[in-house]
Design brief:
heterodimer, A: about 375 residues, alpha+beta, 4-stranded mixed sheet, 4-stranded antiparallel sheet, globular, B: about 425 residues
């Protein structure tokens, strides 16, 4: 059994950590947090130069052709650094949708641009409240044009293209949904930024009015493709969440060692020690579940749907738990804008909703476990 | 990243599998597979006798304590081979329950601190199950704070004379030897006045009394010592070094990897898949699904955490600290899951009989026995301290009795 990343992958993780420590300090994150720029353009360029954006994109499409395990270790570092860039929208969602369902021409058009840092992509799935479900897709596609409204769309205001889920039938089944690819610079889409929990990652509303779009994958296959994309993104996001959990736990631990109250380090009080021990427990469970997701993702195993749901739940809970209690360990200082705790708290809670809520994934996990048990 | 054996591991597994297939007591297979949640019982046989027979066979075939050196009754196997053996031993591993304290804690302590003569005399018989060992550490006034123990050992010529009382001693009623920590100097701070011994449990003055547990069962004992004589040759480590010696034992207790921790999740999943509630199957109820998903994820997390440790062993590395979460998570889950399963059963949840149509009363038994899991082998609170201090590097607790001579430490709260 070798349930671990390889030495090369660990080296890549160290390289990514070092790079992000230099280029993505909390100070740099705050430039985006304070609304001075919608994302860190310099960092995005740097990530492209390091080969991180295209690490899982095949060489024939301008990527490094490494693989998903390599992408997992980079994702973990992106989460740890709270990177204010459209990495998950572009790399986990848009690029993965293209890899699964794109035609050769579509891949050639967009994947090299993603790897080079020249195109930002996103997935336009949600239409207001609710979770991923075919019946929540109301936006229509007919005669090669889209009509309808999508929100929230992560990184929608800075995206160059979007993968859009649209209704192409009315049978009430999954086959009613098809995917489309939209060049957002070509017109027909009105994009409006909306304020959201985590200002370091923008959210937008997109209104499509007779917007020209080309099909991505076969008509009626949209939901099946989307399910695969969401499973893959769930694993990759889980690694970001694990990285974020680790960082929040470290911040809490460090503060507990530095801060003196009642004449002693607050980390010597059992109430604080036990809170931090419990954070370690959640982060460890999340990491181990995510490893299993990484294995399933990288081998395209039949276990991926179940593994992805478990990783998603475990990592979402861990990041929320660690980010919340990191503030608690910090006491009043943790509730100031000046301290960085709230940035992880915001990111943790925004990420918890991005691919569908916790209750959605709990539901999915049970369905998938039952399917396995029945088989 | 893969779940495959290396060629050497695969070959070892094949050898182990063939041996188990040819030698295991198959007549108990079904009964053992049905024993779950720590309830290992054979309807018509004594588990200790059946276990001894299996252990003896294993020793003859070279499969008992296989990670120990050959000269002490083992096979000289690597840590990963030990894990593979445990996987292949499968349900028959449940028969090793009477030997686990000896194999996991007493044996390694004798191995680390005993004389060559003692190792050759005692370890092979411990490994083969011919002699069973128990651990005599906890006392009525010294549980988590085991260094505060009161049992006295006084030097008389070449012997030590022991008086006092131990408690929570698993298996003392069928043990041949015991690993005993006692106070040899009450005038120095508590950690400094302890010494480790081993003794024949049939020695005059040793009295084993069963404890009827809150669960109604009897697995633990009290052990009383009245002028029990132990030869100085049965001392492990120097006089006053007992605390250090005990750490070997406790580290081994917490290092056991690959033993699957019971969480109750498979049992709860099965219950929910079959139990009809007012509006349909329990597993179709959103509230039930949410609970079940959360526990399933924790249980998977523990499983994959142990896989990570096994991978480290396979590469010849030391596993990281992540295994320290195992019992902390699983013991609390068992208790919570039991209570939840009974909640789903509604009014009928009060019945404990094995003839009950819903789940054969197993969750009720689990509820009653689960408090011990959160206490034995380190309470939840001690385990959180260990994670906080050894993994996260937080300061140790402030110990007001640290530099106080033992006989000056207060013994009553009020």
């Amino acid at each position: 059994m070798n349930f671990d990343f390889s030495d090369d992958q660990k080296q890549l993780r160290d390289q990514a950590r070092k790079f992000l420590a230099e280029k993505c300090s909390p100070k740099a994150v705050r430039v985006v947090l304070d609304g001075k720029t919608p994302y860190d353009k310099e960092l995005w360029k740097g990530l492209a130069e390091m080969g991180f954006l295209g690490v899982a994109i095949p060489e024939e499409f301008g990527g490094a052709g490494a693989g998903h395990l390599e992408l997992c270790v980079i994702a973990q570092e992106m989460g740890r650094a709270n990177a204010p860039v459209p990495f998950s929208s572009t790399v986990y969602l848009a690029a993965e949708a293209l890899l699964i369902a794109g035609s050769d021409a579509q891949k050639k058009r967009w994947l090299p641009a993603i790897a080079a840092g020249e195109a930002i992509g996103t997935l336009a799935l949600f239409e207001g409240k609710g979770n991923p479900s075919p019946k929540n897709v109301k936006l229509t596609a007919a005669n090669g044009v889209l009509n309808g409204v999508k929100k929230p769309v992560a990184d929608g205001a800075i995206a160059d293209f979007a993968v859009v889920a649209a209704r192409t039938g009315s049978s009430g089944r999954e086959g009613d949904i098809s995917l489309f690819l939209v060049d957002l610079r070509a017109g027909g889409v009105e994009v409006k930024s909306l304020t959201n929990l985590d200002p370091t990652r923008g959210q937008a509303e997109m209104t499509f009015r007779d917007c020209k779009a080309e099909p991505l994958g076969a008509a009626g296959e949209g939901w099946s493709i989307l399910s695969q994309v969401l499973d893959r993104a769930a694993v990759l996001c889980a690694f970001e969440q694990v990285g974020g959990s680790d960082r929040a736990l470290e911040m809490g631990r460090d503060y507990a060692l530095d801060r003196i109250a009642f004449g002693r380090q607050i980390g010597s009080f059992q109430a604080v020690k036990h809170m931090l021990a419990d954070m370690y427990v959640s982060a460890t469970l999340a990491r181990s579940n995510s490893y299993y997701g990484a294995w399933a993702l990288s081998t395209n195993a039949a276990e991926l749907p179940e593994a992805a749901a478990a990783a998603r739940i475990s990592a979402t809970q861990a990041f929320q738990h660690c980010a919340k209690n990191n503030i608690q360990v910090h006491g009043g200082m943790g509730f100031t804008w000046e301290f960085d705790c709230h940035m992880y708290y915001r990111r943790a809670n925004a990420m918890a909703l991005g691919l569908g809520s916790l209750s959605y994934w709990e539901d999915q996990l049970i369905d998938r476990m039952r399917k396995k048990n029945a088989a | 990243m893969n779940f495959d054996d290396t060629p050497q591991e695969a070959a070892f597994r094949e050898t182990a599998r063939k041996w188990v297939k040819a030698n295991a007591p198959k007549e108990f297979e079904e009964e053992l597979s049905k024993s779950s949640l720590g309830r290992i019982r054979l309807a018509k046989h004594d588990i200790v006798e059946v276990g001894k027979a299996w252990q003896k066979k294993k020793a003859e075939g070279g499969w008992a304590c296989l990670h120990w050196p050959k000269e002490y009754g083992g096979r000289g196997a690597t840590p990963i081979e030990r894990v593979i053996w445990q996987q292949e031993e499968g349900v028959y591993g449940k028969l090793t329950q009477p030997f686990q304290i000896g194999e996991g804690m007493c044996g390694p302590t004798v191995m680390a601190w005993g004389s060559e003569d003692a190792k050759r005399r005692y370890l092979p018989k411990l490994a083969s199950g011919e002699e069973i060992w128990c651990q005599l550490f906890s006392e009525p006034s010294a549980g988590s704070d085991v260094a505060g123990l009161r049992t006295r050992a006084e030097k008389k010529g070449d012997n030590w004379v022991v008086n006092g009382q131990k408690i929570w001693t698993s298996g003392a009623h069928y043990s041949d030897y015991g690993l005993l920590i006692a106070r040899t100097d009450p005038n120095v701070p508590k950690h400094k006045g302890l010494t480790m011994f081993f003794l024949d449990m049939k020695s005059p003055g040793v009295e084993v009394r069963p404890i009827k547990q809150a669960s109604g069962l009897h697995e633990f004992n009290e052990v009383y010592f009245t002028d029990v004589v132990i030869p100085d040759s049965q001392r492990l480590g120097a006089v006053g070094e007992g605390w250090n010696v005990s750490l070997t034992t406790l580290m081994n207790e917490r290092m056991s990897i690959g033993s699957r921790l019971a969480t109750g999740v498979p049992e709860l999943f099965e219950l929910c898949s079959n139990l009809m509630l007012e509006d349909g199957l329990a597993i179709d109820d959103p509230a039930v699904r949410s609970k079940l998903a959360n526990w399933a994820v924790k249980s998977n997390g523990l499983k994959f955490t142990s896989y990570r440790a096994i991978s480290a062993l396979s590469k010849g590395e030391r596993p990281g600290p992540e295994n320290s979460i195992g019992k902390l998570v699983s013991a609390a889950m068992l208790q919570d899951i039991a209570a939840y399963a009974m909640d789903l059963e509604g009014a009928a949840g009060v019945f404990t009989g094995e003839a009950e149509e819903i789940a054969r009363g197993q969750f009720q038994q689990m509820l009653l026995s689960s408090p011990s899991g959160r206490i034995a082998g380190g309470t939840d609170e001690i385990l959180r301290n260990i994670i906080a201090e050894r993994v996260l590097g937080l300061p140790g607790d402030i110990r007001v009795d640290k530099d106080v001579p033992y006989n000056k430490i207060p013994t009553k709260g009020r």
